[in-house]
C-alpha cells in the first residue's frame, strides 16, 4: 500500500541505543525498520527491559510497553515481543506482516549455529566487524563438538576472513580464507586466498606462496590458470595504483573513516 | 471571581481601551472584570508605562499615572504598533510589537486576581475591530511567549464576536436575521447577521451596513437610528435587535426603540457585547461545541478543505489539514509522515459544501535515494491569505540510519474554487 504513513507517535528526546549496530533510534518507525531488516540481531541485546522502558517513557506507549514486558516475563517467542510493535503503527501491510511473522518463526526454528552465522552476516552488513568475528569464532570453536557440513564451516571461515580483512587483520584473514579453501575449495575461496596473499606478503614471498598454492591445488580444478592470471592482474593494478580524486573536505572524510572504524571495532 | 482554574477569557483589545471578561460557569455567562474593586469600570486604556529606575511596567490607568511621572515612559501606541507591525524604542532598547503586547497581556491579565494566571487559562480569545497580518502575528507570538500553547488562544474581529454572542443566546433571538447597532462616541454602526440556510454546514455572515455620525439633538439621534435601521433591515425578516456601546442611552433612544419594537422585533441592550462574544467563543471552542452544523464565514475565511489521504494503522484515511471555515491567519497545520513508495505529495482539495474533490500534486525533486519507508517528512501548511496556502515539506531523514538533509520543498496551492470555462 503506497502512500504516506502518518506518524502519530512522538519521537523520543532521549534515543534508544541499539548496541549490535551502534545506532541510536528515536522513533517507533526506526525500531520497526531495524526489527524488520535485522531478524538475526533480535536477541537479548534488544529484547530487554531497557527497550520496554524506552517505549513507555520515550515514546509514551505504555500499553505497548506492558505487552512487550509480558512477552518477556513469560519468555515467549520472539514474535510475541516483536509483532505488537508493528501492529501499534501498522508499519507493514497485512501481507508483509504475515510474511514477516513467518520469517520470524522460521528463523527461531533454525539450528543455533546457523542463527549465529546469520547474526554474524547481519553484523558484517552493518559494519560491526568485531562483533561479527565473535559470532563466527563461536561457531568455529563449537565445530569440534558438532559435526558441521564442510560447506557451512567453509562459509563461516570465509565470512570471518572478510570481517578480519575489513579490520586490516591481514594475516588472520589469510588464514581464514585458507581454511575456507581447504574445507571447501571453490573459485570464490581460491580468489579470496590469492588476493589475501597479495596484500599480506611482500613481492618475493607472494610469488613463492603462489607457487606453493599452485603446486598443491592445480589438480583440483578450482585454482585454474585463468584465476591466477586474474589475481595477478588485480595485484598489478593495486601496485601501480589507481586514479582517484582527493576529497575536497579532507577533514570530513577523515571523520567518516574514524566513525566507520569505531563502529567496526566497537 | 468564581472561576480560578481552566479559565475561559475574552479580551477585547481596542485602539484606545480594552476589556477583559471571563466565563462564569456557575451563572453560565461572561462576566467583565472591573479595573477598580467595587466599581462598574471595566474598560482600561490600552497603554503601557515603563519606569526604568525600577524596571517596572504598568498598564491601563496606572500607566496613565506612571507615564507622566519624571523618568516614566508612556507607550500609548500598543495597538497601532501591533496593527501595522514594527518596533519602538523604550528606554535603551528596541522593542518589537509582540514584546510590548506580551507585557500588555501579562500585566492586564493580572486584573483577574489569580496567581499564575497563565497556567490557569484554558482558552483566551482576543477580539479587535480589524485584523491585519502583523496584528495576528504579534498577538499569537505574544501569547505563545507568555506560555500559552497553540489552540489555547485565537483572535477574531468584532463581527465574529457578534456571531458568537448571538448564537450563545436563546434561540428565539436568532431564528431569523439579527441586527446590531453599536454606539461609539459619535458613531452609529449597523451590523446584520444572516444565515445561508441552503448550505451545509449553514453559513453565517455578518455584514457591516454603514455608519452614520450621531447628531446632537435627541430627536435627531432617534431619527438617525431609525434611518440606519431602515437601511440595514430592508428586505429581511429579523428576530432580534441588539444595541451596544457607551453612547447608547435607553432613555434618549426610547422613541426609536418603541418604533422598532412595533415591528415585532425584540430589542436587547448589552454592555460590552464584543468582549462577551469573545468569551462565548472561548467557551464554545474549548468546551461547549454546540455550534456544529453552522459556520461563520467572512472574507477572511478559507472556503476550501485541504487534506491528504494517509495510511493510519492499516487503513487509508482522509486527514484534514486546513478546514474550510477557519480564518486564514489561524489556518495552519503540521504533521509528520513516512513516504511509502512515493516521491511526491498529493493533496486533496474540496470546496466547502461540495462533494467534488480535486488533487494537487507537489513533486519533491532531488529527494535523497533511500530504502522504502526511510524518509520522514515534516509537513507544514500555512495560509498566506484566504486564497493561497503555502506548503512546506522538510526532509527529516530516518534517525541515525539515514540522517536528515533538512532540505525544504515549498509550494503554493490555490484555495479558490475551480471555475468552469
Provide an overview of this structure.
The complex is a heterodimer of chains A (266) and B (421). In chain A, a hairpin with a 4-residue loop joins strand 2 and strand 3. Chain A is globular. In chain A, helix 1 packs across helix 4 (78-89). Helix content of chain A is 67%, strand content 4%. Chain A has helices at 28-37, 49-57, 62-73, 78-89, 94-109, 112-125, 129-142, 150-166, 170-183, 187-200, 203-217, 225-240, 250-265; strands spanning 3-6, 16-18, 23-25. Chain A has a two-stranded antiparallel ribbon. Chain A has 266 residues and is mainly alpha-helical. Chain B is α+β, with helices and mostly antiparallel strands and 421 residues long. Chain B has nine helices and 25 strands. Chain B has helices spanning 60-66, 78-84, 97-108, 117-120, 133-145, 158-167, 218-232, 254-261, 273-288, and strands spanning 7-13, 17-24, 29-32, 44-45, 48-51, 56-59, 73-75, 87-90, 93-96, 121-128, 153-157, 177-184, 187-196, 202-213, 238-244, 266-269, 294-296, 304-312, 315-322, 332-340, 344-351, 357-363, 376-383, 388-400, 408-414. In chain B, the strands form six sheets. In chain B, strands 1, 2, 3, 4, 10 and 11 form a six-stranded mixed β-sheet that branches. Chain B has a six-stranded mixed β-sheet with strand order 16-15-12-13-14-17, with helices on both faces. Chain B has a four-stranded antiparallel β-sheet with strand order 19-18-21-22, with no helix packed on it. In chain B, a hairpin with a 5-residue loop joins strand 13 (187-196) and strand 14. In chain B, helix 7 (218-232) runs parallel beside helix 8. The radius of gyration of chain B is 24 Å and the shape is globular. Chain B starts with 6 loop residues before the first strand and ends in a 7-residue tail after the last strand. The chains are: A mainly alpha (266), B alpha+beta (421). The interface between A and B is medium-sized, with 23 and 27 residues. Strand 1 of chain A pairs antiparallel with strand 20 (332-340) of chain B.
Amino acid at each position: 500500500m503506497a502512500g504516506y504513513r502518518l506518524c502519530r507517535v512522538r519521537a523520543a528526546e532521549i534515543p534508544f541505543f541499539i548496541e549490535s549496530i551502534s545506532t541510536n533510534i528515536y522513533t517507533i518507525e526506526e525500531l520497526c525498520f531495524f526489527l524488520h531488516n535485522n531478524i538475526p540481531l533480535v536477541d537479548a541485546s534488544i529484547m530487554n527491559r531497557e527497550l520496554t522502558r524506552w517505549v513507555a517513557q520515550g515514546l509514551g506507549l505504555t500499553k505497548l510497553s506492558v505487552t512487550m514486558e509480558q512477552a518477556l516475563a513469560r519468555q515467549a517467542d520472539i514474535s510475541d515481543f516483536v509483532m505488537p510493535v508493528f501492529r501499534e503503527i501498522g508499519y507493514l501491510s497485512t501481507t508483509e506482516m504475515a510474511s514477516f511473522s513467518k520469517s520470524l518463526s522460521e528463523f527461531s526454528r533454525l539450528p543455533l549455529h546457523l542463527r549465529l552465522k546469520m547474526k554474524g552476516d547481519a553484523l558484517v552488513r552493518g559494519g560491526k566487524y568485531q562483533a561479527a568475528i565473535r559470532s563466527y569464532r563461536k561457531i568455529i570453536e563449537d565445530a569440534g563438538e558438532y559435526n558441521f557440513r564442510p560447506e557451512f564451516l567453509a562459509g563461516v571461515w570465509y565470512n570471518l576472513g572478510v570481517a578480519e580483512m575489513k579490520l586490516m587483520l591481514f594475516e588472520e584473514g589469510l588464514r581464514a580464507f585458507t581454511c575456507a579453501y581447504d574445507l571447501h575449495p571453490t573459485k570464490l575461496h581460491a580468489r579470496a586466498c590469492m588476493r589475501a596473499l597479495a596484500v599480506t606478503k611482500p613481492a618475493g614471498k607472494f610469488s613463492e606462496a603462489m607457487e606453493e598454492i599452485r603446486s598443491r591445488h592445480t589438480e583440483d580444478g578450482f585454482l585454474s590458470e585463468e584465476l591466477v592470471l586474474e589475481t595477478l592482474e588485480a595485484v598489478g593494478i593495486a601496485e601501480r595504483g589507481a586514479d582517484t580524486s582527493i576529497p575536497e573536505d579532507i577533514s570530513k572524510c577523515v571523520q567518516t573513516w574514524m566513525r566507520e572504524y569505531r563502529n567496526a571495532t566497537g | 471571581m468564581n472561576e480560578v482554574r481552566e479559565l475561559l477569557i475574552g479580551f477585547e483589545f481596542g485602539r484606545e481601551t480594552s476589556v477583559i471578561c471571563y466565563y462564569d460557569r456557575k451563572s453560565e455567562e461572561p462576566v467583565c472584570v472591573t479595573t477598580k474593586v467595587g466599581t462598574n469600570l471595566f474598560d482600561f486604556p490600552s497603554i503601557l508605562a515603563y519606569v526604568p529606575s525600577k524596571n517596572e511596567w504598568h498598564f491601563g490607568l496606572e500607566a496613565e499615572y506612571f507615564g507622566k511621572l519624571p523618568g516614566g515612559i508612556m507607550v500609548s501606541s500598543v495597538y497601532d504598533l501591533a496593527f501595522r507591525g514594527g518596533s519602538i524604542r523604550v528606554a535603551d532598547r528596541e522593542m518589537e510589537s509582540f514584546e510590548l503586547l506580551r507585557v500588555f497581556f501579562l500585566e492586564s491579565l493580572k486584573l483577574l486576581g489569580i496567581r499564575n494566571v497563565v497556567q490557569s487559562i484554558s482558552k483566551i480569545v482576543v477580539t479587535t475591530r480589524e485584523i491585519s497580518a502583523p496584528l495576528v502575528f504579534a498577538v499569537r507570538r505574544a501569547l505563545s511567549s507568555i506560555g500559552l500553547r497553540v489552540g489555547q488562544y485565537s483572535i477574531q474581529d468584532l463581527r465574529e464576536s457578534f456571531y458568537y454572542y448571538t448564537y450563545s443566546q436563546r434561540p428565539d433571538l436568532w431564528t431569523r436575521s439579527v441586527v446590531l447597532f453599536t454606539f461609539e462616541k459619535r458613531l452609529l454602526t449597523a451590523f446584520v447577521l444572516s444565515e445561508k440556510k441552503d448550505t451545509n454546514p449553514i453559513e453565517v455572515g455578518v455584514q457591516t451596513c454603514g455608519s452614520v455620525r450621531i447628531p446632537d439633538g435627541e430627536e435627531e439621534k432617534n431619527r438617525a437610528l431609525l434611518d440606519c435601521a431602515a437601511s440595514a433591515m430592508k428586505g429581511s425578516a429579523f428576530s432580534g435587535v441588539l444595541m451596544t456601546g457607551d453612547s447608547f442611552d435607553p432613555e434618549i433612544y426610547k422613541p426609536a426603540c418603541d418604533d422598532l419594537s412595533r415591528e415585532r422585533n425584540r430589542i436587547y441592550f448589552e454592555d460590552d457585547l464584543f468582549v462577551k462574544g469573545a468569551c462565548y467563543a472561548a467557551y464554545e471552542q474549548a468546551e461547549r461545541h454546540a455550534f456544529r452544523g453552522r459556520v461563520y464565514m467572512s472574507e477572511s475565511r478559507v472556503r476550501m478543505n485541504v487534506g491528504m489521504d494517509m495510511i493510519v494503522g492499516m487503513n487509508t484515511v482522509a486527514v484534514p489539514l486546513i478546514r474550510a471555515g477557519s480564518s486564514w491567519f489561524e489556518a495552519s497545520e503540521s504533521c509528520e509522515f513516512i513516504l511509502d513508495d512515493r516521491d511526491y505529495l498529493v493533496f486533496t482539495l474540496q470546496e466547502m459544501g461540495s462533494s467534488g474533490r480535486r488533487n494537487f500534486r507537489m513533486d519533491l525533486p532531488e529527494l535523497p535515494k533511500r530504502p522504502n519507508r526511510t524518509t520522514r517528512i515534516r509537513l507544514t501548511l500555512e495560509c498566506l491569505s484566504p486564497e493561497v496556502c503555502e506548503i512546506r515539506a522538510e526532509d527529516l531523514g530516518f534517525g541515525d540510519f539515514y540522517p536528515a538533509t533538512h532540505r525544504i520543498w515549498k509550494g503554493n496551492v490555490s484555495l479558490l474554487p475551480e471555475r468552469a470555462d
